């Protein structure tokens, strides 16, 4: 499992103290230390159509190895170090029906584990809780849909992980209060996170790593290390999200290009509301992505954002090009807009409004409003 990368901090931010960052980093390192070994499979019991601790004692955990419809009729508890429900066959419909799936210290194993062969799986959670695992829900299969109906995937190391699995939907899942990421999406295409939350996680709320053509829509990622981080992830859409009160950045586009960010709100973040670049500090610092051996973040579109009371409102670092920052309302940041390229390079800042810091120190004219990037 990919572990989170803890980022550096910057002093002098009114919403972030060194003590707070140290506490978050210590908690994240402690969470990593709890992972003491690879999970073992669920009990060597084959699930029948009805799943419960009464049917499959002692805890009810089992493996779904044939296509069909399966229903939980009671809450389940996994043995220490084990998965609870493994799905190894395609064409499965699993209804957890609001029941709770619980792991056992030291937080190893997976609550619901969809293996690579289990394509066309549908999980209807009905508001279930999945907690106290290494990973709450893990998917490695294409064409999977997990409909949470407000399900809580909380108190795990990672809430929801999707690895090398395309065309997957996570809908109405609360991946909150996990010890690492809420959602961790890696090497995938066509993943959709919709109407969900990733709040109060020790690491980032949502991480997209080497992922493309995916959507994060109508979702919040508040009070994490960073809210949403795209790393080496291209051609994704982030629409109507809220990323507030994160310790570092609300939204971080790191070595990521051609992404569209539209109609979101990002306020009270410790560093930047939106940052395009690779600096370890999460704000423009005059460093290029190539200095870290990473590609630049080019051709991103940031449109119709509301960005308030961050250390930096919207910032682009040195060497990142052809990004369009258009029709955003930024206010109360210090500064509101910042471009680390001389004369803004080939980045376009157009029709942004609401500045508290509008001095044209780098000569980047903001065409429609008369404001400037600082």
In a nutshell, what does this entry contain?
By secondary structure, this protein is mostly beta strands. The protein has two domains: 41-225, Single-stranded right-handed beta-helix, Pectin lyase-like (Pectate Lyase C-like), CATH 2.160.20.10; 226-374, Pectate Lyase C-like (3 Solenoid), CATH 2.160.20.10.
Largest sheet descriptor: 16 strands, parallel
CATH architecture of the largest domain: 3 Solenoid
Total helices: the number is: 1
Cα-based radius of gyration, to the nearest Å: 21 Å
Average predicted local confidence, pLDDT: 87
Protein architecture, described:
- The chain is mostly beta strands.
- It folds into two domains: 41-225, Single-stranded right-handed beta-helix, Pectin lyase-like (Pectate Lyase C-like, 3 Solenoid); 226-374, Single-stranded right-handed beta-helix, Pectin lyase-like (Pectate Lyase C-like), CATH 2.160.20.10.
- 5% of the residues lie in helices and 33% in strands.
- The strands form four sheets. It has a 16-stranded parallel β-sheet that branches. Strands 2-5-8-11-13-15-17-19-21-24-27-30 form a twelve-stranded parallel β-sheet, with no helix packed on it. Strands 23-26-29 form a three-stranded parallel β-sheet, with no helix packed on it.
- A hairpin with a 6-residue loop joins strand 32 and strand 33 (372-373).
- It is elongated.
- It starts with 17 loop residues before the first helix and ends with a strand.
- The model is unreliable at 1-39, 358-362 and 367-372 (pLDDT under 50).
């Amino acid at each position: 499992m990919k572990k989170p990368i803890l980022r550096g901090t910057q002093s002098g931010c009114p919403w972030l103290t060194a003590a707070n960052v140290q506490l978050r980093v210590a908690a994240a390192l402690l969470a990593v230390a709890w992972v003491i070994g690879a999970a073992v499979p669920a009990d060597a019991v084959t699930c029948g159509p009805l799943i419960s601790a009464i049917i499959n004692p002692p805890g009810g955990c089992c493996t779904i190895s044939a296509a069909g419809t399966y229903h939980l009729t009671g809450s389940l508890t996994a043995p220490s170090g084990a998965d609870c429900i493994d799905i190894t066959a395609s064409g499965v419909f699993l209804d957890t029906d609001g029941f709770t799936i619980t792991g056992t210290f030291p937080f190893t194993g997976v609550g619901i584990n969809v293996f690579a062969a289990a394509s066309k799986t549908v999980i209807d959670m009905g508001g279930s809780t999945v907690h106290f695992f290494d990973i709450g829900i893990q998917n490695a299969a294409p064409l999977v849909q997990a409909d949470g109906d407000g399900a809580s995937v909380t108190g795990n190391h990672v809430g929801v992980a999707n690895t090398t699995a395309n065309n997957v939907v996570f809908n109405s899942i609360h991946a909150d209060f996990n010890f690492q990421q809420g959602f961790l999406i890696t090497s995938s295409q066509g993943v959709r996170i919709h109407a969900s939350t990733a709040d109060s996680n020790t690491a980032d709320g949502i991480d997209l790593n080497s992922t493309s053509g995916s959507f994060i829509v109508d979702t919040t990622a508040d009070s994490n290390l960073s809210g949403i981080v795209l790393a080496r992830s291209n051609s994704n859409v982030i629409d109507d999200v809220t990323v507030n009160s994160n310790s570092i950045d609300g939204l971080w586009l790191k070595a990521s290009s051609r992404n569209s960010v539209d109609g979101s709100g990002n306020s009270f973040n410790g560093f930047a509301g939106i940052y395009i670049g690779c600096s370890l500090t999460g704000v423009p610092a005059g460093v290029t992505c190539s200095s870290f051996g990473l590609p630049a973040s080019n051709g991103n579109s940031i449109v119709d954002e509301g960005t308030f009371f961050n250390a930096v409102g919207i910032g682009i670092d040195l060497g990142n090009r052809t990004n369009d920052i258009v029709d955003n309302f930024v206010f109360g940041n210090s500064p509101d807009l910042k471009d680390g390229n001389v004369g803004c390079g080939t980045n376009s800042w157009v029709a942004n409004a609401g500045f508290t810091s509008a001095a044209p120190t780098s000569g980047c004219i903001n065409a429609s409003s008369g404001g400037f990037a600082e």
